Amino acid sequence: MQSKKLTCTEKVRVRFNETDPLGIVWHGHYIVYFEDGRESFGRQHGLTYLDIQKAGFTTPIVKSTCEHFLPLKYGETFNIVTTFVNSVSAKLIYKYEIFNQNNQLVCRGETIQVFLDSENNLCLYNPEFFQAWKDKMGF
Question: In which order are the strands placed within the sheet that holds 105-114?
Answer without folding.
Answer: 6-13, 77-85, 91-100, 105-114, 61-68
